[in-house]
Every structure is written in structure tokens, then in C-alpha cells.
Amino acid sequence: MTADLHIHAAPPEGAAADWTIPQNWDAFTREEHAVWDTLFERQAKLLPGRASTAFLRGLDALRLSDGGIPNFDDLSERLMKLTGWQVVAVPGLVPDDVFFEHMANRRFVSGNFIRRADQLDYLQEPDVFHDVFGHVPMLADPVFADYLAAYGRGGLRALELGALPQLARLYWYTVEFGLVEEDEGLRIFGAGIVSSSAESVFALDDPSPHRIGFDLERVMRTEYRIDDFQQNYFVVPSFDELLRVTVETDFAPLYERILPRPSIPVAQLVEGDRVIHRGTQAYAAAREPA
Ligand SMILES: C[C@H](O)[C@H](O)[C@H]1CNc2nc(N)[nH]c(=O)c2N1
Ligand SMILES: N[C@@H](Cc1ccccc1)C(=O)O
Ligand SMILES: [Fe+2]
Predict the structure, then answer these.
(1) With a cut of 50, which residues of the chain have pLDDT below it?
(2) Fewer C-beta within 10 Å: the chain N or C terminus?
(3) Which atom, in ligand 2's list, is nearest to the CA of 155?
């Protein structure tokens, strides 16, 4: 199974109207399962003491360490009992409205392919390791599970209100790259971090990125980059607080206030005429535009 890098307007051949496809678990080769196992073992070593307790508990509760790419029917059965979520297969990126519709109905979509053994560290599109290892453990947490379902409903609303980029930043800085303050210290929970060996160290240990207390309006105004380690991470005090703030706030007036204002750019570190992306440098602060 290979990635289809294009976002089609209509579901591709073999996909249902909601873009889902059968996982066809039997079609994964030994090599593909071995890629999962390699990635899994690498992260399993790194994450104790780095990942949030909710994430580590989810890994256990869902038995993701059983070995090989998980069978979505078994996984969904376990997840359904815990929080009412399911995991469904899609060929690759799906249109925004389809993505939100599934989420609002507690279906998490996962790319039905895995990176090749020579691409362990970087890929352009979310594969089953990112989607399932990265995202699904958090869905075993009842509070986070409610947050993501509410986010799906919020997504459909943001589309109507013309505020998708603003709402997408909330996803980026929580679901993909969020940090959480725990009693023992800062922990990672964003799927983009926990599924990356380099960033799961960088996000907590590197001195260069900004670690900013969660503020809804600031998050929705802050741009992000998708091709490098983050320069900005936002820290939520707890998942209860994240859920409370996002559910209790009516986003419509917030969008109205934010949309006419400039967004907060990601600072770029420049050397001569060359932009240096690597996050091991000290970046200039992401300042509020005047
Ligand atoms: C926020 C925005 O809708 C986002 O880019 C969506 C689009 N479609 C997607 N489709 C898949 N399969 N996975 C994703 O993470 C997304 N993200
Ligand atoms: N309260 C948001 C919906 C939402 C909830 C939770 C997360 C994201 C969005 C709105 O009014 O649109
Ligand atoms: Fe993701």
C-alpha cells in the first residue's frame, strides 16, 4: 500500500462516499509490520518521563505494543468501550469537511499505508504510525476524547464562518504539538511530537523553542511551519482546562475579532540570505506584530 499524495475532490476508486476504505489488514507485508515495530520500539524507549501519563496509559489500555500494525477492528472495539471512538481507514488526506464530520462523530481517520524502511524519520503525509501511534492513545482518555469530538463540531462551524486557518492552529498547537504541565514537570502529548524520535527530545530539552502558556486567542493567531521542528509550543495546564475553555467559549466573536488582525509570524533565523530552519539555533522571539 502506498501513499496517494493528492487531495482529490471526490473519493478515489474503492472508497466510500465518506472516503473510508477497508483497512485490508491482511494485505500488509511482513516488512510493513516490521517498520511499525522499529518505530514503536524506538518511541517506547524514549517516551516514559516525556509523554503525558494520559498518552502512556492509552498505549497500554489499547495494547498498541502487541506488535505489528494494529488491526482497526480490534483497536476500535477496545477504544469504543473506553470512550466511544473508532478508528477508520482512509487513503490519505481527506477534505476538511469530511475530516471534521468523522471527528464530530467520534471516528478518527487514519492513513492506510506505512512509511518505507528508508523513510523512518520524515514523511509528507500522515501514515498509520503517525495517525495510530501518535493520535489514538490520547483518545483513550475520556477528557481528551471529548475535546477532539468537540473540535470536529467546531471545525464544521469554522468552515461556515470562514475561520478554518484560525481553528486549524488550535489543532496544530494542541492535538499535533501540544505540551501539558504535569505534577512531575512538562510532558508532550501532541501526535506530531510523540511519533517523532527527534522532536520528542527537542520539544522538551532544546533551549531554543518558546514554550508558551496556552491562550486561545494567541494560539489562533500564531502561524506554524510544517517542515521543521516547531519554534513555538503551547503548554496546557491540564486536559480538563483545555476542554473547559474551548467548549465554554463561543468562537464566533473570537473569529470576528481575530480575522481582521495580522497573524503572529514564526520568526525566521537568517544567515546572510539563507533561512536557517534547524531548531538547534536560538531563534528570535515570535513577537507580536506592531
Ligand atoms: C485542519 C484541517 O482540516 C486538516 O488539514 C485536515 C485535512 N484532512 C486530513 N485528512 C487526514 N487523513 N488527516 C488529517 O490530519 C487531515 N487534516
Ligand atoms: N466552542 C467552539 C467549538 C469548539 C470546541 C472545542 C474545540 C474546538 C472548538 C465554537 O464555538 O466553535
Ligand atoms: Fe496528525
Answers:
(1) 1-4, 278-290
(2) C
(3) 9
